[in-house]
Amino acid sequence: MSRSPLHAAFGSLLPPSIPVLCYHDISNAPGSLTPARFREHLDALQSEGWQTITAQQLWEAVTGARPVPRRSLVLTFDDGHISNALLAAPELERRGMTGVFFAVTDFITPGPARSLEAMPPEKPMPDCFIQAITDHNYEYFINEGEIKALVDAGHEVHAHGCKHQGCFRSLQPRNPLGSKGSHWASWSIYPQPRPGLPTFEVGSAYVYNGFWPDNALPEPRFTRRSTEDRLAFCRRDFARSLERMRELSHAPQQFFCWPWGNFDVAADQELRAAGFHGAFTLERGPNARGTDPFRLHRIGVASSKRGDWLLSRLRMYGSTPAARVFFKKLRKRPELRHALLVTDSVKISGGSRQLINNAVALERLGMQVSVCIPTASPLAEELPQGVRVARFDHFRRPLRTARFLRDLCRGNPEASPERPPVDVVHTFHNKAYKPAILARLAAWAGALCGGGPTFRLFINRGVIFKANSLFGLWARLASGMVVNSLACAESLRRLGVPRARLNVVHNALDAAHWPLQDREAQKKRGVRVLYLGNEAPAKGLDVFLEACAEYVRQYHGRDLEFVVAGTDKLHKACPNLPPEVEKRLHCAGPLPHRQVLDLLDHSDLLVISSRQESMPNVLLEAFHSGLPVVGTRVGGIPELVRHRVNGLLCESEDAVCLAQKIRYLVEHREERLRMGQLNQSLAQEHFTPRAKGLKLLRVYHGQRVRDALRLPEAD
């Protein structure tokens, strides 16, 4: 495709820019640019009069050491695939062209330059990387002899990092390791990779702190790396790769090619300090006098692109004005580093305990966590030491609260550089979410007027009750909702909350200091049936007491004890308790949480007789303690209790059914033990702070989470 005379004349009047093309391997393997297509590209360049220059000449042009030549470009080749030396370089030399090759320095082995006949069988580039990572077989990458041959022929060879190291940028799931669709870089993230391990969204380890696995079995644990650890990795990698390339190429100026084309300010500073003279990205823009040599722009060339596409891109980026118009940014995407949890509660309720568990989980995963609570709140005593606590006592004044939260989210990097601005705000209880929404709107306005951080906002909802008619509107102004059951999610759908904003994240139980019970080894004569809850009508204490009376009337209840904990107002719920029930009923009253856990350990089954629930914490506590559950089919209870699998279910208000199910489990000890053991396994697998933390991070990163718990079916 030749240029028109008008286009040529007009183009000669514009300030020139030097396009840089980015190629990878040249082969007939799937996903690669074929040799025939590569020759088509080179012929098109020659026909249009384009001349190649080296990276050093490009550096001289952008730094002002020489004029910016017109119709000059740079051909770069990433990854150091063997085809670059045996296929691409000879084609360049036949046309009097030069190339700039970037090698993964840890993959460079000793040995003489190979001939085309000795080139290994073609395979996709990801497979070449996996082979190098897992087997330390580097036959698909250029060796020392081939680098010497490239340099002797007038080409340049520079560093592409030591290993092209990746990390899990977020915890958004991808296909398991080794399956179709899993990223090749995942093999380099695990210390002992094996097929089937979970993988997540991959990013550059030079740029993202990322989440790193310990490879422990059966499930690896992931922890977020600190910025200091990432920059220490960069320093080591930059120093080693620079030293290796100086040893092999002897070039006075050394350049770096960012893996994946990504960079950030902190890693860029480390690269400059290491002694490199410039760096190539995958951003698009002009390469002209005044361009930062550490921001050299490139055009990625996909395997499907034809010669006419290539020439059209050269026209777009061959002049400085046009290149400024068709710019493309490809810098580091924001990482979530700092979460703020907010509540106006002054007591440790079920929602407050989940806030504590969230803080524990996120802090253990490497997130920085802050909590905003009233001065009188006892939550601070149960938070990890690394969690920052901000006190605030004016939640009844929404505007004042909004200003406080806005300022809290901005942070003060100068006074506290180790604590970045807040990326995510997660509110609990009713008086926190509206001010947080106002604070978010203020942050948006500030960003539009000249900068300042914004944050994502999530509203926690752990109960099912009728909210005000504007709740759906408020929810639309947040990034999303976090609810603890599918039933709660459906109740919010009826209030107008969009389905896309609803995330189901089951409650967690931090049982690090609560030993598991071996109930099979326990020897005891009687059976203790436990109710844990208050006297509110929604909890169904009156239904439980009616079930106790029905049990005593029908089955007498020998060696059976009913225990109520959490309230001492039994007669308010059931004014006329039969004397024969009172004989077998013990009221423990309100108890500290530690004593509640002890009571669970010394009981045999839990009864949840609620009329209305979302996902009660006591259900998870009973699971951990190894108890079967007799419950009502309300709210989220059937999501965790499968009838005849790990518990027994009745309809709401059906005291007769509850009495029958209690009797069944009282008389069938083996069934109680089987259900209790299954519940312990479920608690350890699904309801730990870590399991919840991983789901929360998926939600915070923008993924919709609505996973239903998979329970086995009844026989």
Description of the structure:
- The chain is an alpha/beta fold.
- 37% of the residues lie in helices and 16% in strands.
- The protein has 25 helices and 25 strands.
- Helix 12 packs across helix 25 and helix 17 (541-555) packs across helix 23 (655-667).
- The chain is elongated, with a radius of gyration of 33 Å.
- Residues 413-417 have low confidence and may be disordered.
Keywords:
single chain; alpha/beta; TIM Barrel; Rossmann fold; 4 domains; 6-stranded parallel sheet; 25 helices; 25 strands
Helices and strands, with pairings:
Blueprint: H1 5-13, E1 20-23, H2 35-47, E2 51-52, H3 55-62, E3 72-77, H4 82-94, E4 100-103, H5 125-135, H6 144-152, E5 156-159, E6 166-174, H7 186-189, E7 199-204, E8 211-213, E9 222-224, H8 227-249, E10 255-257, H9 265-274, E11 278-280, E12 299-300, H10 307-317, H11 320-325, E13 338-343, H12 350-364, E14 368-373, E15 388-391, H13 398-410, E16 424-428, H14 430-448, E17 456-461, H15 471-476, E18 480-483, H16 486-493, E19 502-504, E20 527-532, H17 541-555, E21 560-565, H18 570-573, H19 579-584, E22 585-589, H20 593-601, E23 605-608, H21 617-625, E24 629-632, H22 637-640, E25 647-650, H23 655-667, H24 669-686, H25 689-700
Parallel strand pairs: 1-3, 1-12, 2-3, 3-4, 4-5, 10-11, 13-14, 13-16, 14-15, 16-17, 17-18, 18-19, 20-21, 20-23, 21-22, 23-24, 24-25
Antiparallel strand pairs: 6-7, 8-9
Helix pairs in contact: 2-4, 2-10, 8-9, 12-25, 13-14, 17-23, 21-24
